[in-house]
Description:
- The longest helix has 8 residues, at 39-46.
- The model has no long low-confidence stretch (mean pLDDT 89).
- The protein starts with a helix and ends with a helix.
- It has one domain (15-56).
- By secondary structure, the protein is an all-alpha fold.
- It is built from four helices and no strands.
Amino acid sequence: MKMWLDAGASAAAKVDFTDPGARTSLEKATLFWMPGGDQNRFMKAIEGTGLDQVIRS
């Protein structure tokens, strides 16, 4: 998150996808960044939680 704040972002947050408030956080986001890893595996893991719909919208 520090790198985004250093780059001039007004706010940055790490979202725990097991947190019920995660959807609200993602709906307010103007940028969603997933560093490295397998994004397909991640999307499969959150499939059906509603978070997948927010990310795709």
